[in-house]
Design brief:
The chain is mostly beta strands. It has a domain of 87 residues: Immunoglobulin-like, CATH 2.60.40.790. The protein is 8% helix and 34% strand. It contains one helix and nine strands, in the order ββαβββββββ. The strands form three sheets. It has a four-stranded antiparallel sheet, with no helix packed on it. It has a three-stranded antiparallel sheet with strand order 5-6-7, with no helix packed on it. The longest helix has 11 residues. It is elongated. About 20% of the residues have low confidence.
Length: 146
């Protein structure tokens, strides 16, 4: 079968190849993965409510870690294994496979029991209470003997 060509170049060879877009995708899925975790933070009287979009992820793909006052949200997944069993040539792959994470400073006075998390319809919802730092003792005078 003959394919349309200009100056001997096959026009359909690069039809589904967008090099500039691929560079952007690699950048986003690399060190700029935070852009993929679209996040809304709402401040309430005694707490913060955080919603993070993680479409296509399962609850098992998501991790939450509290360390040194930072809450880190991680998500990792691969493509479905049955994708390799499909017949035909894959000409473009846009669905995400890999890992990403994002950290939020929540204060050093919180424990993992303080933070409530739920995952429903591709949205991770967190409730993070506002907890004031423990107060230092008031200034006290020390008597000098002698």
């Amino acid at each position: 079968m003959l394919y349309p060509s200009i100056f001997g170049e096959n026009l359909l060879d690069d039809w589904f190849d967008f090099p500039e877009l691929n560079k952007v995708e690699k950048k986003l899925y690399g060190r700029h993965a935070a852009h993929l975790m679209k996040t809304d933070v709402h401040e309430q009287e005694g707490q913060y409510e955080v919603d993070i979009d993680l479409p296509g992820f399962k609850k098992e793909d998501i991790s939450l870690e509290l360390n040194g006052g930072y809450l880190t949200v991680g998500a990792a997944k691969g493509l479905d294994k049955d994708e390799n069993d499909r017949k035909g040539k894959l000409i473009r792959q846009e669905r995400y496979a890999g890992s990403m994470q994002r950290s939020f400073y929540v204060g050093e006075n919180l424990t993992e029991e303080d933070i409530k998390a739920s995952f429903k319809h591709g949205v991770l919802s967190l409730i993070i209470p506002k907890k004031e730092a423990s107060k230092l003792p008031e200034k006290k005078q020390i008597l000098i003997e002698g």
